[in-house]
Amino acid sequence: MSVTQAPKSRWFVRLSGAVALVALSACGSLNSGPSVEELNANEIFARAERQLEAGQADDAAVTFGEIERLYPYSELAERALIMQAFSYHRDEDFASSRAAAQRYLDFYPAEQDAPYAAYLLALSYYDQIDEIGRDQGLTVAALQALRRVIEVYPGSEYAALSAQKFDLAFDHLAAKEMEIGRFYLKRANYVAAANRFRTVVEDFQTSTHTPEALHRLVESYLSLGLLDEAQTAGAILGYNYRSSEWYEASFALLTGQGLTADPVGNNWLSSIYRQVVRGEWL
Hints:
CATH topology of the largest domain: Serine Threonine Protein Phosphatase 5, Tetratricopeptide repeat
Oligomer: single chain
Distance between the termini: 44 Å
Number of strands: 0
CATH superfamily of the largest domain: Tetratricopeptide repeat domain
Largest sheet: none
């Protein structure tokens, strides 16, 4: 289920008929008519749904919130709260969506919409990840929140959706490390560059950036004169990604200096080689 589709619950079918009837009788602005204080919980909910359907997500979020304020102990209070979180997210008011989703989890941790609330909370971070150059704090927060959905609600449909987005966010962090590493490499700051590429190899091994990171390590270590490390990086690259363009480039660099893509010496890459290639974990 996409976040653009509101979650369904035991109230949905019963309320949809009421919404349709009220919508047919509505005229003028959706915000006109009696004040919310004059309406019961069902009528407020119906008004909020009309606003949401009309593209007025910001107004809908406020209206859904009125049910929590005026009828906090009603059956609809729970449903209105998750719909408020959904409406805020639709309006791209991510901070307010996150706050409403967290409030739902605090008040109704065992209810059927709890997995969706946790997913909305994670999306409030994830949907702001748009550029590699931005501060990655949002990416880290998204990863943490997505992991919570996966671990706390493993049987829900949102666990699978969260797992997909977790992989993308994880790859995003690796891409940031690669971007910084390339920046240093172009400026011949080989130590700083190698440290960034090492982070990708050690902490983001399952990302799509690992083959390039290994090649960039070959480049960096050859420039630093660390031949053992360069050859070992080439060995790992050759074992796992022999058909890639990055292995071909590393192989050319190494052989061009009379070196081979074989593990040499005792360094951090040798440890990875023993673990990954030879299965020696101790």
